[in-house]
Amino acid sequence: MAELIDEPRAGRDRVRVLFVEDDPSVAEMYKLKLELDGYDVEVAPDGEKALDIAHKNPPDIIFLDIRLPKLDGFGVLEALRKDRKTESVPVVILSNYSEKQLIDRGLRLGALEYLIKTQTTPARLSGGLETWLKR
Question: DSSP assignment, residue 6?
Fold first, then answer.
């Protein structure tokens, strides 16, 4: 008899996701989909909180908004890359801003990808997670 597995990550340690977003409704929408797909998600509403969480217990991957209170996403990314505990944590930027200079800056600072929120559904984000983790 074949074994049925409901969760995509059943039998493995769950991936820990840090989702950095100051808009509670946007954060909740993505968090819900990621959790339904078997990921553990913690939300940080500002850049300082994101760094605090990441330094205390580095996540497996970070989804990072650019426009944030207290410390913007670029500042967060720079700080993550300068710290030994977080320098290799994959970061995917998820922003409303699509200007080329911002995209280039995010990638230059070490983000794996720069996604535009209006073009990225929660399902697409969740679907790409395993690929980003393998990089």
Answer: -
Q: Among 65, 35, 37, 19, which residue's Cα sits nearest to residue 127?
A: 37
Amino acid at 127: G
In order of their start, the domains of the chain are 16-134 (3.40.50.2300)
Residue-wise pLDDT tens digits, 57-100: 999 999 999 999 999 999 999 999 999 999 999 999 999 999 99
HEC assignment per residue over 65-134: CCCCCCCCHHHHHHHHHHCCCCCCCCEEEEECCCCHHHHHHHHHCCCCEEEEHHHCCHHHHHHHHHHHHH
Count of C-beta atoms within a 10 Å radius of residue 88: 10
Q: What is the pTM of this model?
A: 0.89
- For 17, the 3-state DSSP assignment is strand
Rounded-to-integer distance, Cα 115 and Cα 93, Å? 6
The letter for the amino acid at 20 is: V
